[in-house]
Design brief:
The complex is a heterodimer of chains A (315) and B (329). With 315 residues, chain A is an alpha/beta fold. Helix content of chain A is 33%, strand content 23%. Chain A has an eight-stranded mixed sheet with strand order 6-7-8-3-9-10-12-11, sandwiched between helices. A four-stranded antiparallel sheet of chain A has the order 2-1-4-5. Chain A is globular, with a radius of gyration of 21 Å. With 329 residues, chain B is of the alpha/beta class. Classes of the chains: A alpha/beta (315), B alpha/beta (329). Chains A and B meet through helix 7, helix 8, helix 9 and helix 10 of A and helix 5, helix 6, helix 7 and helix 9 of B.
Chain lengths: 315, 329
């Protein structure tokens, strides 16, 4: 099967502190994955695991320290700022209220995008925009003349998805698109992403810490921890997790049906920096199955069919 | 069971100046709740359903533009009930944080960004505890923080050096340092990821178990309610539409709105289609007549469009405000 986006050994290093005590934080550490056409690919993990940095690297907001990103087989370095790139790849961010300027009317963003990218002439612009808004369950009439504060979070997030769809992109990067939206409206956004993928053949990189919605919409899932992908495979890896970190994440979910839980599980939390600087496997501080080798050596990627797991337990 | 906090037909909201005169926006509209000792009471609902306004009024923090437009809030001291909204500023200061404490939304940003964490703690204690020197207060801070299982070394860090989850837990520690009887927590876990969320909930539960106090928690996350609250109230457009023991509500929700809220939650291992509540939450400026939920309700019938249902007992433990559950006579 062909590949739409390929991320190959992507690494991003940030350094902290002054020249006397310099700390190197490898925020994204040798991350490789690929996204196929018309699939939802999820990057999941807790805050500070590098999932947003990965998205920013793909979008070209940051430069990688090393590694290559290929889009339809072509290296994208240097092309990311160009118009054709943003015609192909669009993004939706976490907080829809920050996406739009509170003083501007929402529809002005749509017209600006249409004219900037020469998508339609002024006569047809309105119909063109309305079509895209209909695809997300809104209409131009509903948002006409309104400022972001006058729409609900769910409506605004759908509007920002519609804006991203204007250029007919092949890849949509959705960075925590539902974490600021009410639980009751969350599913409308999640269902929308799935629908866009199924009907328009759009590929979506869905970035989240919510594994329940990730399982619900994704074809494939990658679990990230402190800059590395620790487990990757079809969404079913969330039903039968292998890596202890995936297991921990799954246990942390507060399920609305608590009776299935026999005893209360407790989690321990470490500060990010401590874990980023950990030698060997970065999860060793919290891992219930840590062995002696884990502290010394970083585990390598172990493949089994379509799934990948990075853990000494499966060597 | 002893009551610690109750409201009577509470109406609170905002006054809007329009060309046609003043208009009241009732973000809390006729709320009657009674919260008992050692109970964890949850309030759920969408953004803009009046949850935060209710919590602020319970705390007695009624500052312009918020106004109480009717009804009462009672705190119980021993055997007598005191009207919280009539307390003088001085009395309020005396009972705040000792009797009742409040963890506001986004409380992880309460710490002064240019000072170390412990100085915020000390500032707080200096203005609420009398007759103790700095060292004694500092000891108190350390004792409390380590009793809650947090590392004491974070006290000498600056806020930007800590993760959101740690700051949130420190904010919870700050609000509970004077061992209050009632803790009001407003969305204490939003903006946290699953693991940090779990840790914050764990901390609140530990505090409740240790100090035997009462917690009122507001969040739209049903998972949190399922894991900690004993009783749950569902709010919609300023009114409580359903109230009862959490496990019963989650098992058999009565109100169609609650049914949607619970039915839309995805679970791992189950890919069946889930739909969210159709439509958008109503604006307080333009509330639908009758039951405010009727334009979105799949089981609507004629009476819903004209008359507002009252919150009535459906069985001994449960209350619902829905015409489907009213005896039509």
């Amino acid at each position: 099967m062909s590949v739409l986006l390929e991320v190959d050994r992507l690494t991003k290093v940030y350094s902290l502190g002054n020249f006397l005590s310099r700390l190197k934080i490898v925020a994204v550490d040798n991350v490789s994955f690929s996204v196929k056409p018309a699939e939802v690919f999820t990057l999941a993990g807790e805050s500070g695991c590098g999932k947003t940095t990965t998205a920013r690297l793909i979008l070209g907001f940051e430069y990688p320290t090393s590694g290559v990103i290929r889009y339809r087989g072509k290296e994208v370095e240097g092309l990311q700022g160009k118009k054709w790139w943003f015609k192909e790849v669009q993004a939706v961010f976490q907080n829809p209220f920050e996406t739009f300027n509170p003083l501007k009317k929402v529809e002005s963003y749509f017209f600006a995008t249409v004219y900037n990218y020469d998508l339609a002439d002024s006569k047809r612009a309105e119909r063109f925009i309305d079509e895209k808004l209909q695809a997300v369950g809104l209409s131009l009439q509903e948002i006409w003349g309104k400022r972001p504060g006058e729409l609900s979070g769910g409506q605004l997030q759908r509007a920002s998805i519609a804006r991203a769809l204007l250029t007919n992109p092949s890849l949509l990067i959705a960075d925590e698109p539902v974490s600021m939206v009410d639980a009751s409206l969350r599913m409308s956004i999640v269902n929308l992403l799935r629908k866009l993928c199924d009907t328009f053949g759009l590929s979506v990189i869905y970035i989240t810490h919510d594994l329940a919605t990730a399982y619900y919409i994704s074809n494939r899932v990658a679990i990230m921890f402190r800059g590395t992908v620790v487990e990757m495979g079809p969404a079913e890896i969330l039903v039968h997790p292998k890596h202890p970190y995936t297991k921990l994440l799954l246990q942390s979910i507060l399920m609305p049906k608590p009776k299935e839980e026999k005893e209360e599980k407790r989690v321990s939390v470490f500060e990010e920096e401590e874990e980023y600087l950990q030698k060997g496997c970065k999860f060793v501080l919290r891992c219930p199955e840590a062995m002696e080798v884990c502290e010394r050596e970083a585990p390598c990627d172990l493949f089994e069919g379509e799934t990948m797991v990075k853990c000494h337990l499966y060597r | 069971m002893a009551t610690v906090l109750k409201t009577q037909d509470l109406q609170a909201g905002y006054l809007l100046l329009t060309p046609y005169g003043e208009r009241a926006i009732l973000a809390v509209n006729g709320v009657n709740i009674e919260i008992f000792h050692e109970e964890i009471y949850g309030i759920a609902g969408e953004s803009g359903s009046g949850k935060t306004t209710l919590l602020k009024t319970l705390f007695g923090e009624v500052e312009v533009p918020l106004r109480v437009l009717g009804g009462k809030v009672y705190y119980s001291f021993g055997n007598e009930f005191v009207d919280a909204l009539l307390l003088k500023e001085e009395e309020k200061r005396r009972i705040r944080w000792r009797y009742i404490s409040y963890i506001p939304q986004g409380s992880m940003s309460v710490f002064n960004p240019v000072k170390r964490i412990h100085s915020t703690f000390l500032d707080f204690l200096k203005s609420h505890v009398e007759g103790k020197v700095q060292e004694e207060l500092f000891e108190l801070v350390k004792k409390h923080v380590s009793a809650l299982g947090l590392p004491t070394k974070v006290l000498s860090a600056y806020p930007h050096q800590l993760s959101g989850g740690m700051k949130q837990r420190l904010a919870i520690a700050l609000a509970t340092i004077l061992n209050p009887k009632v803790i009001l927590a407003d969305e204490p876990t939003t903006a946290l990821d699953v693991v940090a969320q779990r840790a914050a909930i764990q901390l609140l539960k530990d505090i409740q178990r240790e100090y035997r106090n009462t917690i009122v928690i507001v969040t739209h996350d049903m998972g949190i309610h399922a894991h900690m609250t004993h009783r749950l109230a569902i709010m919609y457009a300023g009114r409580i539409v359903e109230e009862g023991p959490t496990s019963v509500i989650l098992d058999q929700p009565l109100h169609p709105y609650t049914q949607y809220l619970i039915g839309s939650l995805p679970t791992i291992g189950d890919k069946t289609f889930r739909d969210s509540v159709p439509g958008a939450p109503p604006s307080f400026l333009d509330l639908p007549p009758g039951c405010a939920f009727h334009p979105r309700c799949p089981q609507v019938f004629s009476v819903c469009k004209t008359q507002t249902p009252e919150l009535v007992n459906v069985d001994e433990r449960r209350k619902a405000a829905c015409w489907l559950w009213m005896e039509r006579g």
